[in-house]
Amino acid sequence: MKKKVFASILIVALVVMLVGACSSDDPLVGRWEFSSGDGIYFFWESELVEFETDGTVFSSEDGDSGKWSASGNNKLTVEADYGRDYEFTYQLSGDRLTITDEDGDRGVFLRIK
User: What pTM was computed for the model?
Assistant: First the structure.
């Protein structure tokens, strides 16, 4: 009986650890809706941009997708699936995300809850 209880506790603990490992503390993760701004490529007035915990990003404009990464100095890199890399800066204020490209064009997105 003690072995079954111990095994059950161990399984529950492993499940909790795995679920915790899959969550992300990155504030960019989530769904964002275009609000205003200039046309910046990849995020060109996309109705929806989604940053996934696995590093995947989707842009509703033309169905673009790719991989994303962010560094501590507000740099956002997107490697588009069609073979082009983009460098952006971003600013996050609550549920408002501003993405600026190398030319200074920017787009403002609001988090979808």
Answer: 0.73
